[in-house]
């Protein structure tokens, strides 16, 4: 009887709770939520995605958010720039009576091209609220908010790498009526760039190409262009519209024959560039990269870069090395990460090159690339790593899509075994430190002409080093020497270490140990250290 009474009581309580829930006042709603640009939609636009190109030509200059209220409420429209979480760039709050309403965002002409998620917050007279627009990349778990795609001259090549004279596909999306395309080489220019959305380079001398776009103001266009017959290096197409707007499309020109013009090979970290690219192709408000957070697990290597086409962090991490290389009269050949698919094995690399330089953040590498570089080292090839957190993630390229497989160290191939050091920690650059020289007698050639000895420090003039740091481990090759370090940079015992080792087969391997070391390539004493490294490692 007691069990029956308890069961009856439970049924009564559940029924009561359900009845109370059914009488609970509902949260306010934005009915028929939709967005448009008050003009012609661009291909791919939908009820919650609109394309705006704010260049003051009265064509797609504004974003209009429409909705219906059943009762009086206050509505806040937050225009956000999303990375892992929304960052507000514009806010508008208005009170409305019941009925249909419109809120407008007029972006400034210099608003950076990318998608912007509009988070709509509605609060009724009783303080109840509802939010439309996901707070993270799990957009399917939250009410959808409208998205605005700010369009500039969005251009990108179908591949990151080409041979001289090869025909390439170039994807373009813009409302410009026409474009002028010119080719430039990045690196030799005697201009220092301080913005992440600008390229400066040397004109290759090719005649300008005029591109008609009037019929493509509402849809993307793909054209074919012939890559100039130029030396191996990093190049970009500059596309300029009649109103002065510009977009860039970078590409790597590989050597026609490996090792034909130089015994030094520079690898540009195109996989990492795309991993850090927050271009939002599907228009859900979050970048199509794992850095935006789950559920993103892949990056498309054919996407345009959001900063007018310039790869992420290029001017800080990569460009200074290119300047040092060309300004000091050095010679090298260049490939992208994708070019490793065309190199059969490390034996071929060892036959063609004495030194391979990873000038930037080489975090994402395929099995084939890892195998080739390890074999190159085992055959006596020299390696130079000018960043940190290299060869950390194992990736697989399927078509033009890159997917993370797992960490190399977990797969039984710790990075330190190849590089000498491996990723230890990061703090997103909150704390930077200076290197202190140690064991100078073990590598006197490295410090030649710098005036540095044991206990000397360097890095003060560039604000220090860090962001992500490497350290030696028990897997570091025998004889690995820590030549400089930043003690306890990110906490007790969490030290950035610069290393060097040689193998019985004659390989010489240098690793900087800090993410932004290569970014100081043109500053003293780093430029002298690079001269010394080049002199020692660029010969067998």
Seen as an oligomer or otherwise, the chain set is single chain
| pLDDT < 50 runs, ≥5 residues | 8-22
Strand content: 25-35%
Distance between the termini: 92 Å
Number of helices: 8
Q: What is the helix content?
A: 10-25%
The Rg value, from CA coordinates, equals 27 Å
State the shape.
globular
Average pLDDT metric: 95
| Category by helix and strand content | alpha+beta
Neighbour order of strands in the largest sheet: 21-19-22-24-35-34-33-29-30
Largest sheet, in brief, is:
9 strands, mixed
Count of distinct strands: 35
How would you describe the overall organization of this protein?
- Helix content is 14%, strand content 34%.
- The protein is of the alpha+beta class.
- It has a nine-stranded mixed sheet, covered by helices on one side. Strands 2, 4, 5, 7, 8 and 9 form a six-stranded mixed sheet that branches.
- The chain is globular.
- About 3% of the residues have low confidence.
């Amino acid at each position: 009887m007691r069990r029956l009474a308890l069961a009856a009581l439970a049924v009564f309580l559940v029924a009561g709770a359900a009845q109370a829930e059914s009488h609970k006042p509902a949260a306010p709603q934005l009915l028929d939520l939709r967005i448009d640009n008050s003009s012609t939609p661009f291909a791919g636009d939908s009820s919650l995605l609109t394309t705006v190109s704010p260049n003051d030509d009265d064509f797609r200059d504004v974003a209009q958010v429409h909705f219906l209220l059943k009762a009086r409420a206050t509505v806040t429209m937050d225009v956000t720039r999303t990375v892992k979480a929304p960052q507000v760039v514009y806010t508008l709050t208005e009170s409305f009576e019941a009925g249909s309403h419109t809120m407008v965002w007029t972006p400034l002409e210099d608003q950076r091209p990318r998608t912007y998620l509009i988070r709509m917050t509605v609060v009724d007279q009783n303080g109840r609220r509802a939010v439309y627009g996901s707070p993270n990349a799990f957009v399917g778990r939250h009410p959808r908010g409208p998205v605005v795609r700010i369009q500039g001259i969005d251009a990108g090549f179908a591949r990151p790498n080409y041979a001289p004279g090869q025909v390439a596909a170039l994807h373009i999306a813009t409302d410009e009526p026409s474009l002028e395309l010119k080719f430039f080489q990045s690196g030799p220019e005697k201009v220092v760039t301080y913005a992440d959305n600008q390229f400066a380079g040397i004109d290759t001398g090719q005649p300008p190409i005029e591109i008609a776009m009037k019929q493509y103001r509402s849809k993307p266009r793909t054209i074919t262009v012939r890559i100039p017959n130029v030396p191996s290096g990093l190049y970009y197409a500059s596309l300029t519209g009649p109103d002065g707007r510009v977009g860039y499309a970078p590409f790597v020109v590989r050597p026609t024959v490996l090792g034909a013009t130089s015994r030094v090979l520079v690898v540009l970290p195109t996989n990492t560039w795309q991993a850090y690219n927050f271009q939002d192709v599907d228009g859900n408000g979050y970048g199509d990269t794992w850095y935006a957070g789950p559920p993103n697990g892949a990056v498309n290597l054919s996407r345009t870069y959001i900063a007018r086409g310039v790869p992420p962090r290029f001017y800080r991490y990569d460009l200074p090395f290119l300047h040092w290389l060309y300004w000091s009269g050095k010679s090298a050949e260049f490939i992208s990460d994708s070019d490793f698919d065309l190199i059969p094995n490390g034996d071929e690399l060892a036959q063609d090159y004495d030194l391979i330089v990873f000038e930037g953040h080489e975090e994402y590498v395929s099995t084939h690339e890892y195998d080739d570089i390890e074999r190159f080292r085992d055959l006596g090839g020299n390696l130079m790593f000018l960043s940190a957190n290299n060869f950390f993630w194992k990736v697989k390229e399927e078509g033009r899509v890159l997917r993370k497989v797992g960490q190399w160290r977990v797969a039984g191939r710790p990075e330190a075994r190849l590089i000498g050091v491996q990723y230890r920690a990061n703090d997103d650059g909150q704390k930077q430190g200076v290197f202190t020289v140690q064991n100078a007698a073990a590598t006197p050639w490295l410090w030649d002409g710098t005036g540095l000895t044991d206990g000397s420090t360097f890095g003060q003039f560039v604000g220090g080093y860090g962001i992500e740091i490497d350290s030696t481990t028990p897997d570091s090759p025998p004889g690995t020497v820590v030549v400089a370090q930043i003690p306890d940079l990110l906490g007790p015992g969490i030290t950035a270490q610069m290393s060097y080792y040689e193998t019985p087969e004659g390989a010489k391997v240098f690793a900087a140990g800090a993410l932004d070391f290569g970014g100081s390539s043109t500053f003293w004493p780093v430029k002298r250290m690079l001269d010394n490294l080049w002199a020692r490692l660029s010969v067998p």
